[in-house]
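Subject line: Sequence and fold of a protein, written as structure tokens
Enclosed: The protein record, placed directly beneath this head.
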Amino acid sequence: MDYMVYLCNKHVVDPYMLGVSNSPAISPSEIRQLYGNDVYPWNPEYSLMRQALVLWGFLYTGGLISYYIMSTITYNLFFVDGKAGFDNKSSKDGPNPAFWRYNKTQLIEEIVTSTWSLFIMTGMTVPVELFILSGRGNVYHGISDYGLVYFILSPILFLLFTDSLIYWIHRCLHWGIFYKLHKLHHKFKETTPFSAFAFHPIDGFAQGFPYHLFVLFFPMHNVLHAVTLATVGLWTINIHDRVTFRWTFVNGAAHHTIHHTKFNYNYGQYFIFWDYLCGTYLDPRICYPYDPNDALGKRQVEKYLKGD
């Protein structure tokens, strides 16, 4: 993340926004050589406010680009080319077995909600990332600092840690007053890739906070930290596209589709462990629309979709 901020300052903000031809931006590696590992995460000539605004701009712009590109690609692959939702049929063998009825109004609302919500959510994330960038977290820069084995295993630890916290945060968001925040996302009962970030900002920030909390407790290489943050955004799009990989123990798109249509099941983000342990797991393969023979499930889903 520190290199991303450096590149934004040097190649975008200084030359194109401020008209500074000879940018004073210094790379993070040079800064560490000059000031030590835990002194400055950026050129000390830049104010904290500037860095906060640059980081906010980078996070929001990067999030929007990822959202629009990946959502558009997956939507066209699975919903348009796959004919899902356009022929009003559920195909067990088709590229998108999750029947979806085309709704232009819903698509527009998903995109608008995701766009403004991302703006606020990334702004809420800035203080946390600045805290981490300032050297107060456990982000490190050399693989040799903790060894190759830990470098390889740390993403697995990241997934286990964040999945555990998100499961319980997600369950809390289905309780009482907290559901008033989460209700906006569940408005989209038949999800599309464009509903990925259609959250109330506080809801989205709460479920995303464990990703940043991880590096306050566990060491993580700076490159892995940036890659995992980008990857979880792509995963969020994936679990809303209704097309699933049938990987054992993985909470995929089918599981999350059932969460939206049946509400009280499959709260996990990556794995089914906590759902299995706490009795909230429901196998999507035995449920409509993934099992077209589930007539009772179909009636229940149709009733739920109508708001009855």
Summary: The first strand starts at residue 139 and ends at 140. The mean pLDDT is 84.
